[in-house]
Design goal:
Number of strands: 12
Largest sheet: 7 strands, parallel
Shape: elongated
Structural class: alpha/beta
Distance between the termini: 22 Å
Oligomer: single chain
Order of helices and strands: EHEHEHEHEHHEHEEHEHEHEEH
Strand order of the largest sheet: 8-7-6-9-10-11-12
Amino acid sequence: MTATHTPFNVLVTAEHWAPEAQALVQAAGGQIHFMAEPVTEASLAGRLAQTGAQALVLRGSKPVTAAVLRAAPALRIVAKNGAGVDSVDLEAARAQGVAVAVALAANAPAVAEHALALMLALVRQLPQLDRQVRAGGWDGNWPGSHWQGRDFRGSTVGIVGYGAIGRATAQLAAALGARVLVLRPAGQADGFGCEPELHRLLPQVDILSLHCPLSERTRGLIGEPELALLRPGSLLVNTARGPVVDEAALLAALESGHLAGAGLDTFDIEPLPQGHPLTQLPQVLLTPHVAGVTRQAALRVATLTAANIVDHLAGRPLPPGHLL
């Protein structure tokens, strides 16, 4: 990668960024500035104006609103350190001529592994068994025990959202013997079964795994009618975005027993408020939006984000799918 000759400023919406990513930007003439939490609309607008940043590294779902963009006349690119840009006003960015880029597929293997881990833990009821043993119980392989697990092999896993993460999850699930059914036009899912309509897919699956981006089209995609279409005893895994699922409807389906469990890495409100009803349900496995956070994935994401910034400011085309 050749260095650009014009110095530029990069603002990171966090207090740290991978040293390897910083080195790529600095080698191209960039000066990096950081922000302390909490990052609000007002603080972000103020720091952009103060630094005169040409590039913004978006870590997390910080509010890149029309007002924030208006405060940054020098800004040329918002580079998400990841894939989800639901906190960015894309229409305002387009109107202002600000590019929006993502580190496409860089953390897909990590998120897919996390989704599969949630599936396996729920199928084998690992959280409940762990708590039981810690409390001195032993309802296992023992005379008089009535506990039985269930196999993951032979389950039908429904994939909603067939981008890089959905595709990787489908491949992992199939490798462990699951039947995979993808919400997608027939013949466009790498040999997996397809259903073009959500209402036709849901009654066929034992585990529903969500991987779609959050948009007006997908907000509340899985609500009370959709949950009712799932088989009794089904499981739901969400490593996409919390608002894709109607949280109240999900709680009702779990409390009624219609859903046997859920594995959730994303929520309507993050961090999840203390005492939230989801935390009271033993059949729910919760993780703090870390599905894509591994050392290897973090390095891939950060260096791709840095490359997106350097290449765009130098007038070079970005890889396919990186520029929204």
